[in-house]
């Protein structure tokens, strides 16, 4: 019973996005402000990119990260939790899997990073998800609200650019307006963004979506300033050869929750991931030898992630 909307503690969570915007018009105003910011293309140097079903938390004084962000969200929602006093930030790209655990982990990580800063509120921002025909994003919004509402801490919703507010109609088809956001970790500024370079081990990280892994993975070790992938395992994907033999249109239709509005690289990215799964059916054996994570350290010359060799 501790979700705060427009400065007021709520007894009940909003039943849907429409009710939220009707009862609290301030969220229309903040969404309009976010939507008015031009989309920035963010390069790899200083970027901590968070894939679908991943989260990461970082403090403003982290020397390895300038921007944390995620994109390619259609029916997914990007969740940002920030401590207003310390500036500590956690960001997740949620699709409905592992929501309760991810919400608890995000708040806990921000609290850890904010230790020693007694002043400040926990602020929540939701971006992405559009008015899709199947209502996937609406269900996800409800799922996320429920998870935050039952959290014991007071959590202040300051941005909700989701659903109808993140929807534009083109040729009678609903499209998302914002597909991704970045957050400047020094200032907390949030802005629409696209990320051509999504970081290392991308196919390995994406393989989890297609193989039934429901956990939201924490990918950043802020204590040592390193990107950390795994270890994890997944089940072999049956019929992967058949999927790879299909057309891009078939892949788009059957492996997307929003085939009409996916970014242009969707089918290419899915193919690369399916080929990775085909080559690495048991990652616990072939990828994470000795059960060790893959660590990446920021290269001081290029600003990009480079593998740590042991």
Task: Please characterize this protein's 3D structure.
- By secondary structure, this protein is α/β, with parallel strands linked by helices.
- It has one domain: 60s Ribosomal Protein L30, Chain: A.
- 28% of the residues lie in helices and 27% in strands.
- The chain has nine helices and 19 strands.
- It has helices spanning 17-23, 26-35, 99-113, 136-149, 202-210, 240-244, 248-255, 266-279, 283-286; strands at residues 3-5, 8-9, 40-41, 47-49, 54-58, 67-70, 77-83, 89-94, 122-130, 155-163, 167-170, 173-176, 181-184, 190-194, 217-218, 220-221, 226-229, 294-298, 305-307.
- The chain has an eight-stranded mixed sheet, with helices on both faces.
- Helix 3 packs across helix 4, helix 5 (202-210) packs across helix 8 (266-279) and helix 7 (248-255) crosses helix 8 (266-279).
- The model has no long low-confidence stretch (mean pLDDT 93).
List the helices and strands and how they pair.
Elements: E1 3-5, E2 8-9, H1 17-23, H2 26-35, E3 40-41, E4 47-49, E5 54-58, E6 67-70, E7 77-83, E8 89-94, H3 99-113, E9 122-130, H4 136-149, E10 155-163, E11 167-170, E12 173-176, E13 181-184, E14 190-194, H5 202-210, E15 217-218, E16 220-221, E17 226-229, H6 240-244, H7 248-255, H8 266-279, H9 283-286, E18 294-298, E19 305-307
Parallel strand pairs: 1-10, 3-14, 4-6, 5-15, 9-10
Antiparallel strand pairs: 1-2, 5-8, 6-13, 7-8, 7-9, 11-12, 13-14, 16-17, 17-18, 18-19
């Amino acid at each position: 019973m501790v979700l705060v909307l427009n400065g007021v503690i709520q007894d009940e969570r909003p039943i849907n996005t429409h009710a939220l915007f009707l009862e609290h018009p301030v969220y229309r105003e903040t969404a309009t402000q976010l939507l008015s910011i031009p989309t920035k293309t963010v390069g790899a140097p200083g970027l901590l990119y968070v894939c679908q079903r991943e989260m990461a938390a970082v403090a403003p004084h982290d020397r390895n990260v300038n921007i944390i962000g995620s994109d390619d969200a259609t029916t997914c929602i990007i969740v940002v939790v920030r401590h207003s006093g310390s500036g500590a930030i956690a960001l997740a790209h949620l699709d409905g899997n592992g929501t309760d655990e991810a919400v608890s982990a995000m708040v806990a990580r921000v609290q850890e990073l904010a230790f020693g800063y007694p002043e400040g509120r926990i602020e929540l921002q939701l971006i992405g998800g559009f008015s899709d025909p199947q209502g996937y994003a609406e269900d996800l919004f409800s799922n996320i609200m429920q998870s935050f509402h039952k959290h014991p801490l007071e959590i202040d919703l300051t941005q909700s650019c989701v659903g109808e507010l993140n929807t534009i109609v083109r040729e009678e088809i609903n499209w998302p307006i914002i597909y991704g956001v970045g957050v400047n970790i020094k200032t907390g500024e949030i802005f629409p963004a696209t990320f051509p370079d999504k970081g290392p081990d991308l196919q390995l990280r994406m393989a989890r979506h297609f193989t039934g892994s429901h956990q939201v993975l924490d990918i950043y070790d802020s204590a040592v300033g390193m990107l950390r992938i795994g270890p994890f395992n997944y089940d072999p994907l049956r019929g992967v050869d058949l999927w790879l033999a299909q057309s891009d249109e078939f892949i788009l239709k059957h492996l997307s929750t929003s085939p009409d509005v996916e970014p242009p690289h969707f089918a290419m990215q899915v193919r690369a991931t399916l080929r990775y799964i085909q080559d690495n059916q048991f990652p616990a054996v072939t990828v994470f030898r000795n059960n060790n994570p893959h660590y990446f350290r920021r290269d001081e010359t290029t600003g990009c992630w480079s593998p740590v060799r042991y």
